[in-house]
Prior knowledge:
Layout: E1 6-10, E2 37-40, E3 53-54, E4 65-67, H1 83-86, E5 97-99, E6 112-118, H2 125-138, E7 143-147, H3 148-155, H4 170-192, E8 197-202, H5 208-221, E9 226-233, H6 237-250, H7 259-274, E10 292-296, E11 301-305, H8 310-321, E12 329-333, H9 347-351, H10 357-370, E13 379-382, H11 386-395, E14 402-404, H12 424-427, H13 430-438, H14 451-467, E15 472-476, H15 478-489, E16 505-512, E17 515-522, H16 545-563
Parallel strand pairs: 2-3, 6-8, 6-9, 7-8, 9-10, 12-15, 13-14, 13-15
Antiparallel strand pairs: 1-2, 1-11, 4-5, 10-11, 12-16, 16-17
Helix pairs in contact: 2-15, 3-4, 4-5, 8-14, 10-11, 11-16
Amino acid sequence: APASGHLAMVSPGMEPFCVGCAVGCLGGLAVLVQSRWLRIRGREATKTSPSLSMWVGNAAAPAPVKLGVVSGNDDGGHYLGSSADVEGADMSKVVPMIVRKNARGARWDSMKIVFVLVGLPARGKSFISMRMQAFLCWIGVETKVFNVGQRRRQRETDDQSAAYFDMNNDEAKTKRDNLAFEVLDGLMEWLDARPQGAAIFDATNSTVERRRLVQERILQKDPQCVVIFVESFCNDNEVVEANIRAKLAKSPDYAGVAYEEARRDFLERIANYERVYETLDDTGMKESELSYIKMINLSSHLVAHRVYGLAASALLPFLMSLHIGKRSVWLVRMGEAEKGTEKHLQKGYFADTALSENGEVYATRLAAHFHSGEHNNARVLVCSHRRALEMAALIDKEGTHTSVRPFLNPMDWGAYEGVPRREFATRTDPDFFKSFTMDPINTRFPGGESFADFVRRLQPVLVEVEQQVEPCIVIAPLSTLQLLSCYFSKRHVSEAMDIDFPQHTAVLWRPEGGSFVSETFTVDQFPEAPKEHPAHGGKGDYETKEKKKRRLAAGSMMFQRGIV
């Protein structure tokens, strides 16, 4: 890890890894990440373990306070040790844990924030910007991307070949700088019109001097604004090559230009930037006071420097899940519930209700579709409701690719469970309805959750979905799928209940650059279930009662494994 107070998280190569729920700790620095290395380093660099070390501090922070279980030392601090230390054991090897007091750094708990992208061309800056925008909007932070390249294409109609980006071309450099700061001023105007929000400044910002000017301009207009630089640094040739191909295929700069000619020009443009490029690095103390996140080869190695609060607990795990794979994501609504008793409408009983005959037809057709082609190794994430477990057992008969995630269970509507949105005005308390109308995101249902609570509950699942490199199938109830759909469609979570997701429907989301495109499938579009299946009234033994009993038992075992 670079020699300054920051958090570095490394996962060798591009192999997938699990990112757990982020938790608040140590005065606002909060991240829980499963990874091969986790380092928090600080003022005193003392190694505690060859595989895991925790050092906390910051060279520029105020006087630290030492924490631990042993007290009474001569400097009044506390040390990290065990109960054996109290009994007079050798304390010479006890490692002090330094914690900053009143630390200064980037937080956005209730303020305005600007993310400034840094990186050479074809390093995925726009991809990161669009995914960040989707995620921040999804967790309730109004966010907009301001892309300098788009403004350049609109404004500059002359030749924009590699010569335009030559750092020795003073006239072109002046034009580029003016455009960049014009976009930045528009960003600040947008942010100034809001009580809080996040803006993303998507440009190369490739030198220390440029980054200094950007930060000064932002703080001159709003001294309370938080600035976090996000660098995409890439030295993996395969990743760079993939980004170049994607750039040439979609960039308006090379529309109608032969591939080889476009490639030569683009590589020359990159070379022009490389001659002056300065990476974010505080070893020379030039930028040690900046708050920044450095992504190396996208998400395989991530460094966070002076980044605290929600920026650490929510955004860092999400950024670590990003990759440029083309895996598909299926959002699958649970099948129809078995009816016939009045109890099927009761909340607790409903969660344990089996699939109806129509639901079994839907589940069987869905499973037949997933048993073919690219979905053989699909990861299945399923809520803990019985119907979802039954569907998962049909799709993944062995249960080796299935994980039960109770976080996917439906939103808790509390006292207003079962009340349709259109009847809120007449069937809910007037004070509640007034509060909900004014703030539908943070108003908590009596005895239940708010949409903000629901989003926080689903964050770990969304991170898990994003990090999958194989197709991912999510089986969940309506309210959960509506909220997840807001992320993929970049809609505000207040619109979740307006998203149409009919019974016996599955929605396929495919990544398209930094966004996703969708395709909706109904039960009739999946392969028909075999005629001998009991759902058709057949007499065959496609699934006998005994087989069904074993399948449901397998679903129960998956539930237990998921809880553990």
